[in-house]
Each structure stands twice: as C-alpha cells, then as structure tokens.
Predict the 3D structure of the following.
Amino acid sequence: MNPQNESMLIDFYEFTMAHGYFEKGYKDKIVYFDLFFRKIPDGGGYAIMAGLESIVHYLENLNFTEEDIAYLRNRKVFSDAFLKYLKTFSFTGDMYSVKEGTAIFPGEPIITIKANAVEAQLIETYLLLAINHQSLIATKTSRIKNAAGERKLLEMGARRAHGASSANLGSRAAYIGGADATSNTLADRLYQIPAGGTMAHSWIQMFDSEYEAFKAYAELYPSMSTFLVDTYDTLETGVPNAIKVIKEILQPKGINTYAIRIDSGDLTYLSKRARKMLDEAGLFECKIVASNALDEYIIRALINQGAPIDTFGVGERLITSKSDPVFGGVYKLVAVETNGEIEPKIKISDNPEKITNPTFKKLYRIYDTQTGSAYADLITTHDEVQDDTKPLTLFDSTHTWQKITFTNYRTKNILVPIFENGQRVYDLPGIKEIKDHVQMELNSLWEEVKRFDNPHEYYVDLSSKLWDIKHTLIKKYKKA
C-alpha cells in the first residue's frame, strides 16, 4: 500500500458498509449526508470553518491503487465484484459547503454530500478529520487573536503538534483564524504563511557569554534580531546585554527594527521593567515579545494588567487547542432518493441535541440591512425560496412559543456548490482571501457573541416546513 494515498484513510466499518450497499443493490442509491457539529469549543459563541481546501484536493484525487485492492482482498471480506468496482472508483457526486473562513454554529449543515451510497459512505472519515481538526485550530486561534487585539500573534506550536500533518495544517488553520505568522518553515513553503522566529536558549548557552551570543546573532541577522533575554537573568543581564548589542551593532547600521523576547517568569512584571529599561536607553522602538504556555485568558490578563507586550508567541495551547481539544463534528444521513423523490431520514436520540435535522437543506444567514450585522441562521428545505421583501418570523426549535419577526433584513444562502457530478465548480480562494473573509465574518457578529464568558447564543432556527417534516418523522418513529 502506498502510505501517501489518503483515499485509504477510511474507518474499516465504512468499507464493510459500502460493500454491503454494493452487494444488496444500494450501489446506485442516491443519498444525502450532512456534516455538522453540536458544540462550540471552550463554551464560545462561534466557530470558524476550516479544512475545505483539504477536502477538495482529497475528492479530486480519490482512487484506490493496485496495492490498496490487494490489501482489501487479503482481508477476505470483500467480493471480487466490489474490489473490481473500486479499481475505477472516483467521486462522482455533488458537494455543498459553507466557504472556508465562515463563522459557523451548532446544528447547521456546513457540508452536504449528495452521492451514491458507496461514495458518500467511504468519504466520511476524511471529511470529518479535515473539518474537525482545522476548524478546531482556526476557532482557537480566533479566540486568542481576539484577546491579543492589535498586538501581533505568532503561532509557534509545531513541536507540540500531534504529528507532521497536524503541524502543517494546524499552521494553516491558525493563520486563517487570525495568527500573523508561524514558526513553521514548511507551512510558509506550502501555504505562503510568513515564517519567523528567534534564537533558542541553546544558542546563548553555546557561546562563552550572553553578550557574545547576542552580538553574533546581530552580526548575522541584523534586520531580524530578536534577543531571548531570560536564559540567565532577564533584568540583570538579559535586557542590558540586548541594549548593549543594539547600540553597538544595529544602530550604527541604521537599523531600528529589533526586539527582546521573554519566555519565562512573571511576564507582566518583567515586561514592564524591561520596557522601562529600554525606554531609558532611548530604545523606544524596541518591541517586546512574550511566550510561555499562553492562551486567550492569560493574554487577556496580561493586557488588563498593563503588560507592554507587542507580540505573543503561542504554541501548545493553540496547536492542540489544549483547553477543549475535540471539535465534535458528525456526519449523518439525512435523505435518500426513491423513484426520483427525496425521502427525508432522521436519527432520533433520547438526547434532544442529538436528534438530526432531516432532508436536503439550504442554510440562510440573516443580516440587518442597516448595520450589516448577522441576526441568525435559518435552515430550510432545499426547495424553499426566501423572499426578503416579506416579514420573516423565526421561532425557537425547542421553545416554539419564543418568536422573533424581521422586516429590514436580507438573507444569503451560505451553502454553495463545490462539486457537481464529480467536477469541481468552485474556485479555491487564496489563503489571504480566506483570512480576510474570517475578519469580515467576525465584523458581522455582535460583540456579545464573541465574548469569552457566557457569550450570547447565536440563533440557528428551522423553517416552519422543515420543523413540520422533522416532528412528523419523530412522531412516526417514536410510535414504531
């Protein structure tokens, strides 16, 4: 087996189900699956969609090699007819998705697949892993950048990531979510994310003195000198040696872009003392970079305490989303086609939040025409057409007596076609365009939705028609 063929990144039970569909005459059955998530990480008010580009490349290259077929044959589970079918396998279905970088909310379809049963089943794992991982990191980064505000955010988590692909795709997701740069050089090559960094403590330990280490670095990299000042004593030796080297090496060359970095200790106290020392030396332009297991709460506390930090380097708590490391996206069957008609399907659970929204759907975002702010999202059946000239009444899908009516609004269907009949019909945007889209999305959300603690719940409602279909099915199967 070619270990690089991601087409084989499939949970084995998906192969057994696909084989069963094939053998029992469901191979050509058209089905609809929704990918959605149930809970926003960290108790937040919004999440950021990421991972679509990975899915597009995956579907465009979906195939099984001779080595893959041989592996499956050796399992002695699958028929020769099924294995022969896999030899010419490719994705021939339709895919709809919200754009990468869009703000997303629980319960709404962020990807819909329309394909034959075998295809739709076999792509489940990859779709979930792409969205779950990258949306998690993009969302976490957005929270951290929200805390940092105008200060720079450097993602530096590669060495703490859960493997190489998590490091690279995590850097990409972090940049989309709001990071200004990465420490990951490969991510720069792959995705054109600005890569940067400074020395490690080992560089300083390698030389006879801290001063010699700083001096050597400034001579080699005069235009990108950031001095790590906490190897021995931040205030007694680190900052003074950095000041000395800046004055001796960099200023005579007319260079005025340099920084110090603090990686341990009381960051508020040390940054305040360091800022005072730098200013007294006339180095007002010298920036202060801070790192050391930071997250959005620590950064917010540092800023509230008046820490004069210009750039935050965030690693392990970003790249692993340490505080809430599971995004929780799921992939559920919502409809099948029978004699050309769409037949809604539903999954019922004793937990109300796990009951799915059936049938083929649209996802509308509702905007205030005066402020441009997003009010809520509305899930409708695929054949409903929204008329923005008429009042729109939404009701809570649980507490149905709670209603709100909009008049001055506009709606936008944010589920867009990506593939039609297996052919891509969507132009993938550049990473900077996706990053800008994230900022536009965040600007459209109420500030109350973006706060860390007890954020306002952004409403995702069902149209009356969809609500009726859902509850008709619940009654039907609860009686069965």
Notes: The CA atoms of residues 33 and 332 lie 5 Å apart. The chain has two domains: 6-137+325-479, 197-308.
